[in-house]
Amino acid sequence: RERHGGMLWFDLEGGDSDAIKLMDTIQRPWSLCENLGATESIITACAVMTHANMIKEDRLKVGISDGFIRISCGIEDSDDLLRALKAALDNL
Predict the structure, then answer these.
(1) How far is CA 80 from CA 16, 23, 52, 73, 85, in A?
(2) Is 55 exposed, middle or buried, given 0-12, 13-18 or 19+ CB atoms closer than 10 A?
(3) Are 81 and 41 in contact (CB under 8 A)?
(4) Looking at residues 59-78, what average pLDDT do you find?
(5) 40 contacts 29 by C-beta, under 8 angstroms
(6) Three-class DSSP category at 62
(7) Helical segments of the chain, H only
């Protein structure tokens, strides 16, 4: 069976504090990483990871809010991914 990944983003209403909390509580199969080119599923809080060097005003101009979360779904079992993401989101 072939497996394909995908990428999406969502915005946490709690901003960077919820983004950090999500990164602290997310469990496997998710990995924290700033490189989205692998086959494993990766989750990134862009404001405090990939774009942390930008001043907030510039970051907001390009559409990256404090709670901006980017995920790249890899080839792991989708039920495992959803279960881990739901558990972390429920913890916010």
Answers:
(1) 25, 17, 29, 11, 9
(2) exposed
(3) yes
(4) 91
(5) yes
(6) coil
(7) 15-25, 56-61, 78-90
**Exposure class string for 72-84: b at 16+ Cβ within 10 A, else e:** bbbebeeeebeeb
Token pair belonging to 60: 């907001």
Per-residue pLDDT for 36 more than 70? Answer: no
Q: pLDDT at residue 14 above 70? A: yes
**Alpha carbon distance 44, 9 (integer Å):** 9
Confidence of residue 3 (pLDDT cuts 50, 70, 90): low
Spatial contact of 67 and 13, defined as CB atoms under 8 Å apart: yes
Structure tokens at 44: 């990134």
In the numeric block, the tokens 């993401």 are attached to 85
